[in-house]
Every structure is written in structure tokens, then in C-alpha cells.
Design goal:
The protein is α/β, with parallel strands linked by helices. It has 2 domains: 125 residues, Rossmann fold (3-Layer(aba) Sandwich), CATH 3.40.50.2300; 96 residues, Arc Repressor Mutant, subunit A (Orthogonal Bundle), CATH 1.10.10. The chain has 8 helices and 12 strands. Strands 2-1-3-4-5 form a 5-stranded parallel β-sheet, with helices on both faces. A 4-stranded antiparallel β-sheet has the order 6-7-8-9, covered by helices on one side. Strand 7 and strand 8 form a beta hairpin. The protein is globular and about 50 Å long. The structure holds calcium ion (CA).
Length: 252
């Protein structure tokens, strides 16, 4: 008589080894393409074609990133983004929205609703993966940062801002910024890697007696870049939409 061993020696994998990405896209071919590339890079992927279905998944699972189409059945990407941000403003799962609509106002609406970056269709899968990885690296970096109330220092490479003393230095040399330039740079640096629309920047620099329009933001960015000198190109122009400060890994 042979006694078979019932012991299960299955080796459990680390539960949080892979990053989990949710793909929401109703066009089958595009969805499969995105899923294929994400899986190839070792991500765990859930993919759905419907906005409401995506909402139910987000309510029950944690995702490290959401790749979200805008035009979707039952619940649009915009509505889903608003729901995600309203539900848990503290858990900032990055949202990369993929859209066929590329009018600046449309893109700005998406970013203001809480998306972190966008990609226009048709897109190159290399660009898609670069954006995905950049958003995940930025997220890791954000999670390592002390809470903003604990630290007054914002650091971007050699550029250092102290939000308590209002001092700004580039490689140790002090910069003289106007109040608006300071507020503008502060919002951009607090959101490294994220595109900020002109509208959201207007809100940031709007102060008592200051009436700011889109053009004024451009003027302040122009002035800021001049003062930043060799560091001017850390501020990227997102044509027709707004601005972004490039994410730079901390230098040790
Ligand atoms: Ca669609």
C-alpha cells in the first residue's frame, strides 16, 4: 500500500512583489496591447472595458496605477477619476489617462479632476511604458517623503526651496523671486512629474487684489525660467495645457 504524502510544500510568493495596474479601455485591441506590454514588464494587470466595472474594482482592490481611457461605456474616465479622488484623497493612486480627444481644454479638465498625466491616441507603446514607469517612480518617491508639514524643504536636484523662510537656492546660490514666482515654483515642485493646468496654477498664485489670467501664468514662468538660468529647463511647457516640473531623483 502506497501512502501518498498530502503535505503541500508550495512556496508562497511575496504577496506584494508585483505592482498591480488597472487598465480601463473599451476598445479591445488597444486594451490587449496595453495589457500585453504591462505584463511583459512584470506587472499584475486587471483589465476591464467598462467604467462602472472599473469603479467596483477600485472599491475592492488596491492599485498602484490606473491606465484609463476617457470615453467609456456607463461611467466616463473623467467621472471615474473624480470618484477615485473624492473617495480617498490621501491614497493618490496615479492615474494615466489615454484619450483620443486632445484639445487642451479637455486635457486640462482631466488633469484638474485628478489625473496625473495623459497620453494621446494613437500612442507608441514605448512612450506608454515610459510614462507608466515614471509615474510609479514618482509615487514611490512621494511615499518616502516626510509629510509636507514636517519638512519645509522642497528639493529638486540642486534646486532647494524653503517654504517657511521663502529662500530659494540653486547649487547654493540664492535666487530672488517675486511672491507669484515663488508660489508658482512651489506648486510645481510639490507636484514633481505631474502636469499642472494653467487653471490650477492660477488658483495657486491668485492672491488678494491679484487678478490672474492664463497669460499672466506664462509671464511668471518666463520670469522664473530667466532666474533659474541653467536650471530653466526643469520647467516643461505642456503646449496649450500648462506646465510640469521634471521629476529628478534625489541626489545623494
Ligand atoms: Ca473609448
Amino acid at each position: 500500500m502506497v501512502i501518498t504524502s498530502q503535505s503541500t510544500l508550495s512556496v508562497r510568493r511575496e504577496p506584494e512583489l508585483n505592482k498591480r495596474v488597472l487598465v480601463v479601455e473599451d476598445e479591445g485591441e488597444i486594451r490587449q496591447l496595453i495589457v500585453l506590454h504591462l505584463k511583459r514588464e512584470g506587472f499584475d494587470v486587471d483589465a476591464v472595458e467598462d467604467g462602472e466595472e472599473a469603479r467596483q474594482l477600485v472599491a475592492t482592490r488596491n492599485y498602484d496605477l490606473i491606465v484609463l481611457d476617457w470615453m467609456l461605456p456607463s461611467l466616463s474616465g473623467l467621472e471615474l477619476t473624480r470618484w477615485v479622488r473624492k473617495r480617498s484623497p490621501s491614497t493618490k493612486t496615479p492615474i494615466l489617462f489615454v484619450t483620443a480627444k486632445t484639445e487642451p481644454e479637455h486635457v486640462a479638465t482631466g488633469l484638474d479632476a485628478g489625473a496625473d498625466d495623459y497620453l494621446s491616441k494613437p500612442f507608441d507603446t514605448l512612450v506608454l511604458m515610459a510614462r507608466v514607469n515614471a509615474l510609479l517612480r514618482r509615487q514611490e518617491w512621494l511615499q518616502e517623503q516626510p509629510s509636507s508639514s514636517a519638512s519645509a524643504r522642497l528639493i529638486l536636484g540642486d534646486l532647494v526651496m524653503n517654504t517657511h523662510t521663502f529662500e530659494v537656492t540653486v547649487a547654493g546660490a540664492p535666487l530672488e523671486l517675486t511672491r507669484s514666482e515663488f508660489r508658482l515654483l512651489e506648486s510645481l515642485m510639490m507636484n514633481q512629474g505631474k502636469v499642472l493646468s494653467r487653471e490650477s496654477l492660477i488658483e495657486e498664485i491668485q492672491g488678494e487684489g491679484v487678478n490672474v489670467v492664463g497669460r499672466t501664468v506664462d509671464t511668471h514662468v518666463f520670469g522664473l525660467r530667466k532666474k533659474l538660468g541653467a536650471y530653466a529647463d526643469v520647467i516643461e511647457t505642456i503646449r496649450g495645457v500648462g506646465y510640469r516640473v521634471r521629476y529628478l531623483p534625489p541626489q545623494n
